[in-house]
Structures are given as structure tokens and as C-alpha cells.
Design goal:
- This protein is mostly helical.
- Helices cover about 75% and strands about 0% of the residues.
- α2 packs antiparallel against α3.
- The two termini are about 15 Å apart.
- About 35% of the residues are buried.
């Protein structure tokens, strides 16, 4: 059973995800991204635009979603880790454009500066996480699913 191609492939994918997140850079990226999500969720009350309820709720939900995606709690396989990083990129872009998109007149100087700066940081960290996952895959070279089925193995 230990040499079954599906078991070997699953073990390989798990090791790849583990390598991407166990480096100091990967851990720093994950921690900074988690803190960015927590800040985004609390930012309406930190920067003082909690009276703009549509943007406050948007930032709260987006920040919680971003923190959960980037904390790595759900990404124990490479495909999920890589996909979650791209999902977090979308949340970073949404954070940037949210002051102009959500209903109501919420595009004030405070909200725009807060969301654009936080969104750019969130996007950069998500791209870094995606690059780390991609680097872990490429460092493997030819060891992928096809290698598990090669004759002579």
C-alpha cells in the first residue's frame, strides 16, 4: 500500500506544501498576511470611519476572510495553498476598490488611504505566498504525478 501511486502522489503534494510554508520567508509572509487581515477587519474602528457602516462591514468581512485564507489553516495541500493565495489576491484588489464600489458616499480621504494602503500590502503578501508555493513546486523539477507512474519505480 505504501508504494501505491496515489499514496506517493498525495505524500509528494503534502511535502511540497509543507516546504512552501516552513521556510522563514514563508512563515513571515503568513504571519504578516494574518496580521494584515486582522488590521483590515478592525480598521474602521482604528482609523475612525465606523459610522460608514457599509464600508465598515465590508472591511470586517474581507479582513476576516483574508486572515483565514492566509493563515494556512485550510491549505494542507499544494493546490489549496496556491488557490487560496490567488483568492487572497482578489480580496486585496477588492480592498483597494471598495471605497468607490460599496453603496453610500464612503469615499473619504481616511477610507481611501486606509483601504488602498492595506489592499496593496494584502495583494503583495498574497502574491509572495503564491510565488513561494510556485517555487516549492518548481524546485521539485520532474517529481510530479507523472514521475510516480514511471516504469521501474
Amino acid at each position: 500500500m505504501e508504494t501505491h501511486p496515489d499514496i506517493v502522489d498525495m505524500r509528494h503534494r503534502h511535502e511540497m506544501a509543507e516546504r512552501a510554508t516552513s521556510t522563514p520567508q514563508g512563515q513571515a509572509t503568513g504571519t504578516l498576511a494574518f496580521l494584515t487581515g486582522i488590521y483590515l477587519a478592525a480598521s474602521p474602528w482604528i482609523t475612525g470611519f465606523n459610522n460608514l457602516s457599509t464600508l465598515a462591514v465590508t472591511n470586517l468581512l474581507t479582513g476576516i476572510a483574508y486572515a483565514l485564507l492566509m493563515s494556512g489553516g485550510f491549505g494542507r495541500a499544494y493546490e489549496r495553498t496556491h488557490s487560496m493565495a490567488w483568492g487572497a489576491c482578489v480580496l486585496g484588489v477588492w480592498t483597494i476598490i471598495a471605497p468607490w464600489v460599496v453603496s453610500g458616499n464612503v469615499a473619504t480621504t481616511k477610507t481611501i488611504v486606509n483601504n488602498v494602503v492595506t489592499g496593496v500590502i494584502a495583494l503583495a503578501l498574497a502574491l509572495a505566498a503564491s510565488a513561494a508555493a510556485r517555487a516549492a513546486e518548481s524546485s521539485e523539477g520532474g517529481r510530479g504525478r507523472s514521475a510516480a507512474f514511471m516504469p521501474g519505480r
